[in-house]
Amino acid sequence: MSKPIIHFVLEDMDVEAPVGASFQEIVQASEADVTFGCRNGTCGTCRIRVEKGMENISSLEREEKDFLESIESPSNERLGCQIRINGNCSISYIGL
Fold it and tell me: TM segments (predicted)?
């Protein structure tokens, strides 16, 4: 089984990671430019836009869903601290 490739759009950088890896771990290992704040899904500092491959991102949990709804985020935005990568995707960091 091949490893997912995460394309960081703003850096134009591709990073390979194990299936199911947390986005936080991927960012830390790759030195991609994504800032994390609270790391529990309540501050929005790590908000990202999934440009491609939303089907390869872990499901939205209740706390993250509530936060994103409270700031009226579009459906292709997620909190980086809350996701796991299950396949190829393209991601842009947008922050809060």
Answer: none
Half-sphere exposure in the Cβ direction for 18 (13 Å, CA) = 6
Contacts of 23 (CB under 8 A, 6+ apart): 6, 34, 48, 80, 81, 83, 84, 85, 91
Report pLDDT digits (tens) over 21-45: 999 999 999 989 999 998 888 899 9
* pLDDT-above-70 percentage for the chain: 99
Domain-wise residue ranges, the chain: 5-93
Question: Alpha-carbon distance 79 to 42, whole Å?
Answer: 9
Contacts of 32 (CB under 8 A, 6+ apart): 8, 11, 13, 15, 26, 93
Ordered strands of the 89-93 beta sheet: 13-16, 5-8, 89-93, 47-52, 77-79
Q: Which two tokens stand for residue 65?
A: 């869903």
- The CATH architecture assigned to 5-93 reads Roll (3.10)
